[in-house]
Fold:
Amino acid sequence: MMEKCQLAANELETLGVLNYQSVENVLSSLEMTTVSRTIVTDNGGRLIYDSSATDTMQSGFAVLPEIIQALHGNDIFTWQYHNRQMQSKTAVPVYSYGQLAGCVYMMEQDPNQGILISSLQSNILTITIALEIAVVAFSLLFSTVYSGRLRKITTSMRTVREGDYSHTVDMTGHDELRALSDDFNDLIHRLQRSENKRRQFVSDASHELKTPLASIKLLSDSILQNEMDPDTIKEFVGDIGNEAERLNRMSQKLLNLAKTEDETPISCEITYILPTVEKICRILSTLALDQQVSIQVHALQDSTILIQEDDLSQVIMNLVENGIKYNKPGGTVEITLERDRDFALITVSDTGVGIPEESLEHIFERFYRVDKARSRSTGGSGLGLSIVKNMVERNRGTITAESTPGAGTKFIVSFPVFDMEDGENDQ
Ligand code: ADP
Structure:
């Protein structure tokens, strides 16, 4: 189109003077079959030739925007799609001896391109509508499935809130809802565990507290119902006092045990073991003297460990106290500190009564006592070793027991060493 216009302008430039006749002669000699309108103006925009007279002719001037642009010396090409027609317009200036003499304007209507564009438009419209329907349908489907799965979780939460800790969510898939359900189930299992522990604890505790309470009731009933001399009454009241004392000790230990079963994180510090061992030996020296038992410490190698110092004291205290309590007059309790690769070992061994093999696996259970009568006479509650085990384990340690009945018992506690030069646990 632009070439045709340019060609016409070149031919017109050879004329020198532009007038209707000469212009028509030039244009009719050119092949212009597809051009639907041709206009030629002089350099002032005055109409010289118009292949179809239209109302754009105003007082002999052509005021089309393309013509105005061309008379400013520009080559213009515009196109537009209108009424299912592709319409392109071209205007180029015509020069004569280097001076602007006028311009040529051509307009072409291309119905084929128009049909192509309109079919393209209708295709795009169809595709857009199809896509929109698909998006809406998919969103509806997705939100229905998603909200159904979400409802599953909220229903489970409500069930658990009402106290059914055995309820879990069964969720398929690999998305956030699945992750949320897994976390929820995890939480439920923890709740279940702690609820079971709580129930077990309450039933164990009430069972154990019943015995001294029943003794107190029996003793006081005996005093009230029987004629007794003052000495017997004094003896009975003394027994009541002992049972009350036992109850007191037991409730204290129960509190301790409850604390160790609490799963909240503890604050640890870097601690040498030997100073704590020496402190416990000083505290228990009177008890050892009473029981005619000697305490010996063998610090083959002291180590630093990361632990809550109160826990370390309590662990050593319970083990050494048991070593004294379940010993024989003239016996010994030995505490040995050594190191096995990255572990600090604390061994507490005694030359006492020992523990029968069948009881050894139960001694860390709550309220378990091998010899109930002996344990009662020594003030035992069967809680000490379960407290020890909880404390050792919450400080990332382990505890084992070995025993030969009649010859003695050995407890081995192991904690990961914390080397201060490395600044971290060796484990
Ligand atoms: P208790 O308060 O009864 O001592 P523990 O939990 O400390 O409770 O111990 C549980 C039981 O294990 C004791 O009753 C005792 O029978 C036995 N036991 C613990 N330590 C020793 C030991 N060093 N020698 C012999 N028996 C022991």
